[in-house]
Amino acid sequence: MTKFILFGGKGGVGKTTCASATAISLAKDGHKTLVISTDPAHSIGDVFEKEINPDPTRVSEENELFALEVDPNHRFTEKYAGTAEALMNEAGKFGVDVNTDEFSDFDGGIIGSDEAAVIDLFAEYDENGDWDYIVFDTAPTGHTLRMLKLPEVLDSTFGTVLNVKSQIDGVKDTVTGLFGGKNR
Fold it and tell me: How far is CA 46 from the centre of its chain?
């Protein structure tokens, strides 16, 4: 089972240094280790003097040490762009005008996208048993607190959306029935 270690705190207190040192130590002890930076101002690559990708990048030839820098744009376009487009199309069926051009060239500007990318990453690696340890170099406290609050916010938001959709479906079925149409 993968063990997670998170380094959090204010900006400038040494989270990246501590996360990197811990990851190096674990890898030197023979553990397959991944260090992940969730900070939008990544500096893990500077520590290891390597270009770090949004997918695990080997940073040591001597042991099993890898690093990853979260790229919300990459995660969104690779995993969720189709889902977002489907949701916008569904909203259009209910008369909600969503300008899809604004989202077709995603640039990371959607509120909560950074936090959602990190939560998605936690979930992905929690289910994946490829690593002995995953060390997180978290964003400064404010970002991390927003990330931890996101599931609650999304639950409330999606609950409201589903409730409104259910009510609209009920009205649509009633009106369709009044005019002798078939409910789909």
Answer: 23
CATH of domain 3-178: 3.40.50.300
What's the pTM? Answer: 0.62
Q: Cα(79)–Cα(37) distance, rounded to whole angstroms?
A: 19
User: What amino acid occupies position 78?
Assistant: E
Instruction: Find out whether 66 and 57 touch, Cβ atoms under 8 Å.
Output: yes
130-170 pLDDT tens trace: 899 999 888 775 555 555 555 554 555 455 555 566 666 66
Partners of 135 in the β-ladder: 5, 35
- As given in the structure block, the two tokens for residue 135 are 């060390």
In the chain, domain spans: 3-178
**Tokens representing residue 115 in the block:** 């936090």
